[in-house]
Inverse folding.
């Protein structure tokens, strides 16, 4: 069972299908990038909408008769006797392996009109959407110490950056302030009261003093919350940020449980998630070698290491 139908979960499902393992993907249909109009940097689909990428992935996965997708949510997972009983909104299921590909939830700032512009003029990933901000006036929204590096990163594309804390006190130290000043990034500790849009394009952001800050695009970085509740229930080891710790093949600290994608530490990119899902999917399939097959499917092959052990 794969919990999560994003790039990691679907890549894992595709490879499990190729190994003819009976697989179910539980997908709550709330992808992280559902607000974004275009996804960038994924070889072969650069600039496609997230929905186009999902449809193509669904088409690939659905070709394998051992894989099925269910649009529902998992409520609870309990491990017992080498299996996992999974409670969903549609009923209970039992599986021998479980893969967590639940992703993260981005904390968004409380700004009037924010959600109407999110994904078209406002973004959370400078790496993913920075190129489209080349040579523009850009607002960086956030207040944590890490926000200094986030704002500086936007200069990579020649943007003119203003850092706005949305009324919070900037948490960066003197070194952060000096670095920002050196690169002409002003820190504005005021609440954003709205955005100005003309002819369908964002032109500025207003702050509580009445000032209008030129901005054709905005980026925010507040907090990412890993969807780790199931990992906690299963007793998986987490890092200090709450991400699920995994080995080189997606294995967690709990036998039979794998994890891949944004719920694990590392770069949060579509292609990285798909790669991790593929690796974890293959490892999960191979872990079932020597086990009995699901009804209607061929027996998994023998374990070569066991067979060839002198």
């Amino acid at each position: 069972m794969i919990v999560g139908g994003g790039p990691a979960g679907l890549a894992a499902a595709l490879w499990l299908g190729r190994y003819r393992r009976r697989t179910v993907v539980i997908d709550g249909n709330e992808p992280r990038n559902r607000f974004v109009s275009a996804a960038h940097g994924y070889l072969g689909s650069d600039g496609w909408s997230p929905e186009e990428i999902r449809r193509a992935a669904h088409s690939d996965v659905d070709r394998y008769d051992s894989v099925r997708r269910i649009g529902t949510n998992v409520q609870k997972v309990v491990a017992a006797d080498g299996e996992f009983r999974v409670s969903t909104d549609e009923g209970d299921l039992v599986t021998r392996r479980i893969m967590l590909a639940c992703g993260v939830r981005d904390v968004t700032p409380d700004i009037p009109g924010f959600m109407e512009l999110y994904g078209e003029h406002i973004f959370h990933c400078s790496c993913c959407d920075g190129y489209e901000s080349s040579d523009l006036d850009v607002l960086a929204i956030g207040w944590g110490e890490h926000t200094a590096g986030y704002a500086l990163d936007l200069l990579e594309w020649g943007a003119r950056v203003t850092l706005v804390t949305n009324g919070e006190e900037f948490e960066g130290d003197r070194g952060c302030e000096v670095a920002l000043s050196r690169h002409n990034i002003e820190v504005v500790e005021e609440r954003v009261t709205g955005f100005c849009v003309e002819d369908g394009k964002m032109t500025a952001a207003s702050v509580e003093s009445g000032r209008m800050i030129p901005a054709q695009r905005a980026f925010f970085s507040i907090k990412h919350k890993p969807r780790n509740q199931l990992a906690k229930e299963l007793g998986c080891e987490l890092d200090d940020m709450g991400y699920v710790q995994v080995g080189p093949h997606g294995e967690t600290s709990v036998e039979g449980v794998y994890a891949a994608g944004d719920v694990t530490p590392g770069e949060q990119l579509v292609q990285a998630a798909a790669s991790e899902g593929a690796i974890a999917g293959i490892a999960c399939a191979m872990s079932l070698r020597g086990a009995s097959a699901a009804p209607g499917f061929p027996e998994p092959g023998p374990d070569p290491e066991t067979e060839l052990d002198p």
